[in-house]
Each structure stands twice: as C-alpha cells, then as structure tokens.
Design goal:
407 residues; mainly alpha; Growth Hormone, Chain: A
C-alpha cells in the first residue's frame, strides 16, 4: 500500500487524530500566552508571579492525568471525547468570566488538563493502538494538528482582538469547541479502527512485550529516556510563555513574531511527516540520539541573534526538532513497551511532560525576576540538549539490544 492509498483508506481516523491535537491548542501554552500580557495586567502579576500561577495549575493537571488518562484503555475514544471536549469548552468559557486569582488558577488547571493533556493523549494513544506497520505515519499525520494550531490560531487571535476583547475571544473559543470540534471528532471516531489480518500478523511477529505501568516505572532506561523526552516541552513552553518579555527584550513586533510561528509550524509539519517515514523504516529507538540536535542549535541561535531574522532562524530549527519529536514520542512507547497498557503508560509520560511545562515558566520567570539573563538561560538549555543527545546514543543501543534478547 502506497502513502496515498494509506491516507485514502484511513481518512476518518487520521483526520480524527489530527482534529484532536488541533483543538488541544486551546490548552497549549502558545495559545494561553497570547493572552499573557492582558492576564498579567488584569491581575497585576509580574512575570515571575504569573509563571508561578501557571506552574501551580499545570502541576495540578500533571498530577491528575495519570488517573484520568488510563480511561482510554477501557472506554472508547468517541465516548471519551463526549466528556473531554465539553470540559475544555467550559474552561475556555470560564476564562472569559474569571474575576479572581483562585478562579484563574482553576481555569488554567482545566485548560491544561483537558486541552494539552487529554486531547493529545487520546489522539496519540489511539494512533499507537490502532496502527502497527504504519504507526509512524499515522502518528505523524495526527500530531501535525498541533502545528496547524500554532500556524493559524495566533494570527486568528491577533486579528480577533481588533473586534473583540481578550475575554470575548475565549468565549468564542468555547462556542467553537462545542459547535465544531465535538460533533466532527465524535462522528469521525465513533467507528474504531480494526487492524487487518496482515497488520495483526506483523504486530505479533515483533513479539514486543506488553509492559504494565508498574513495570515501566521500574525500568531504568525509561527514566534515562526522560532526560531527553522532557526537554522539548520544557524549552518550548518556556519560550512561548515568556514571549512578551522576549519581544520587549529584542524589540520585535508581535505581528512579526507571529509570522515566525507560521514558519515554525510549516517546518514542523514537513519534518513530522519525514519522521513518520523514518520511524517506519528504521524504528523510533534509532532516532533517539538525534531529535534534540536541532533544538540545541535553535537555542544557540536565539542567544546569539538579536535581529528579527533571528526569530525565524530559531523558530525554523525549533520546527525541525518539534517535527521529529512529536512523531517520535507517539511511536516510541508502543514500540518499546507494547500496546495493551498504552493508555496507562502514556498518561504517566504525558503527565511528566506537563510537569516539565509547569516547571519551565515558573523557574525561568523567577530567574528573570532576580536578574538572571534570559538569553543566557536559553543558551544553557541548548547545552543541555547537546549533552542529552550523547546520553541517548548509549540508551538507544542498550534498549535495541534488550529487544533482540526479548524477541
């Protein structure tokens, strides 16, 4: 089956996975941060105080996700979205009417849990379970919903502010989720995919052990992989969250920077699809040592370049790394740990990634408040990525050797 035949025969499930990640945007940092300046002004918060608020809300969602996320091992995707999407819409609506700091924390908690956490978790768990031979390609198509959101929503939001307040924009988002996202995703995913006999035979021949969540948590290589796996979410969230401060620091315009988002999203889209082909051909494990190298280069570029062209260099390299990592993270865990308990396993991983997105803004916001150079912080992140790539070279070889012994 060629690539276009694969798309044609699996349109409903791939489009459903894509829409789940696209509409997760309303709980992603890049979208929330578009209102960051208005929120800080409304609640009289410094960069550090808003970062701490965001961190507390995100930590709460990270702690909840392992308990809520395992539901996808027992309840169908269609039934799950009937709960998750209305909950996300309610959070968007509440953002439009929140009046005190406690309410803000609760709203941010729900946006992060149901948007960034559950919408992405449902999509990638479904792709991991429903596909084997073409898992990399299926995941790569689903995850580019994130990039579509990053490409279009900042521009749409900026344009909407011409006619609406930031609160009204969040209310419109809630209506859009209920009238567009919920019926379309439910319709597409109400029929679950059944792998063909050929795919089942292939999956069985790989003899991948189905690890339980407890077994995964006792695996030393799992914790070693998190050294690299958590880096993109930590770094990307940090930079997007403090984008207003970065624009002030560099003297860049908001519209110019929003265009660099589109450039990043385009390259992420391209390299997510490239990564899907590479995963299916060589394996996700073999890609572990390389996916952070463009992110390392991106951080160095942001530290070194002060002109507005630097934002395009940074965002372009970030897009390359995001493309590889988004596909890799969808295919890596079922390849190593099997699919039977994938929902429970992925919920832990997503929770830890959410934890990284919580720590990043809070920690860097505090460092900004006490006078630590933000560009220097970004350079340090780049050095970390380079070191993590070296560690992954060792880890990937050990995991590959273990799989050969177990097969």
């Amino acid at each position: 089956m060629n690539y276009f035949s694969f798309l044609a025969q699996n349109t409903r499930w791939l489009l459903g996975g894509f829409l789940l990640t696209f509409f997760s945007s309303f709980g992603q940092t890049f979208f929330i941060s578009l209102s960051g300046g208005a929120i800080r002004e409304e609640y009289n918060l410094s960069n550090g105080e808003f970062g701490l608020t965001y961190m507390l809300a995100t930590l709460g969602s990270a702690l909840t996700l392992p308990f809520l996320g395992k539901i996808v091992d027992h309840v169908s995707v269609a039934k799950t979205v009937l709960f998750v999407i209305p909950a996300l819409a309610a959070a968007c609506l509440s953002m439009g009417f929140s009046q005190n700091l406690f309410m803000l924390v609760l709203v941010l908690y729900c946006l992060r849990l149901f948007g960034q956490g559950m919408m992405t978790h449902i999509s990638l768990t479904a792709m991991g379970k429903w596909y084997s031979m073409r898992r990399g390609q299926a995941v790569s198509i689903a995850v580019v919903g994130h990039q579509a959101g990053e490409a279009f929503l900042p521009v749409i939001y900026s344009a909407a502010l011409i006619w609406f307040t930031w609160r009204e924009s969040w209310t419109i988002s809630a209506v859009f989720l209920m009238l567009v996202a919920l019926p379309s995703i439910y319709f597409l995913m109400k029929v679950e995919r059944v792998p063909s006999d050929f795919e089942i035979t292939d999956a069985e021949s790989s003899k991948t052990k189905n690890w339980t969540r407890a077994q995964v948590l006792s695996d030393g290589y799992f914790w070693a992989m998190l050294i690299a796996v958590l880096a993109p979410s930590f770094i990307g969230t940090t930079l997007f969250f403090h984008q207003d401060y970065l624009l002030e620091l560099r003297g860049w315009g908001k519209l110019e920077f929003s265009l660099s988002f589109t450039f990043m999203a385009f390259l992420t889209f391209v390299f997510a699809l490239v990564a899907g082909q590479l995963v299916d051909r060589f394996s996700a494990i073999s890609m572990l040592p390389f996916f952070l190298l463009p992110l390392s280069a991106a951080c160095v570029a942001m530290w070194a370049m002060e002109s507005v062209s630097g934002s395009f260099v940074f965002m372009g390299l970030l897009g390359v790394s995001y493309g590889f990592s988004s596909t890799l993270f969808g295919a890596l865990w079922p390849e190593i740990y099997g699919t039977k308990y994938l929902g429970a396993i992925r919920s832990i991983i997503i929770a830890m990634m959410v934890f990284g997105t919580a720590v990043g803004p809070g920690l860097t916001g505090y460092l900004i408040d006490i006078g630590v150079s933000y560009p220097l912080q970004i350079l340090t992140m780049g050095i970390y990525c380079l070191a993590a790539s070296g560690i992954m070279l060792f880890v990937s070889r050990k995991i590959a050797a273990r799989k050969l012994v177990d097969s």
